[in-house]
Amino acid sequence: MSLFPSRLKSTSDEDDCVTDFLIYEQQGPVVTLTMNDPARRNPLTGNSAIPEFLAAIDRIHDDHSVRCVILTGNGPSFCAGGDINEMKRQATPEVSEIAIRHEYRRGIQRLTLALFNLEVPVIAAVNGHAIGAGLDLACMCDIRIAAEKAKFAESFIRLGIIPGDGGAWLLPRIVGLSAAAEMAFTGDMIDAEQALQMRLISKIVPGEELLAAARELAGRIARNPSHGIRLSKRLMRESLHSRLSDVLELSAAYQAISHKTADHSEAVEAFLEKREPRFD
Question: Domain spanning 9-222 has what CATH number?
């Protein structure tokens, strides 16, 4: 069954969809994904979050009109991470270690790979607490901005577990190994100012201005050609685990493709004619 059923509303410039967990809204080239389980603080497990995220990501991949994504949460929290009742179930004798390993590999780890590898830039608009897997979810995004009241914690250790969703790979690449180790080994919570100082986030705004700030940033990204945005992000992702020589080879191939696009020709003409380019 499709995760985007008859509740979908569509016009020429707006495409909205509400499922059990994730609200999918599109205005022009910008998609906003809103986690919508505020009573439980938007957990990623014990619900339909993972399949809904995967379906939304597939939809964005296939829609070349999308040039930027905003990810946020409804209610006082961004994302609480794993559901505590689901953790309690996994700790029972009836659930084997093999079964848990399978659940991680077929569950939240699929989200990690899918969101991290989404070719469209993703802005995390962190409206409140981003805890455990919720923090790691924000780290899967390209850019993070936060409301003044936002809090962050790599809190797995407080529950006697480890970052099973890729946080041990993601967080050090954003804040550095020392700061990531301190967060992971203590489980301490930090506020938005501390997050800004360690470059976990790039901007703090008043809570009532968060979505407007995210949309303004998304608009500045989305005014650029779709293929250039997607190839640039793919190149940056590949650079994380490739040699410089390999990245240069890939850059040459991507650049050859880019030089032959209508968008490049339009950008050159617009520059010479001293006007704003018009991209499809």
Answer: 3.90.226.10
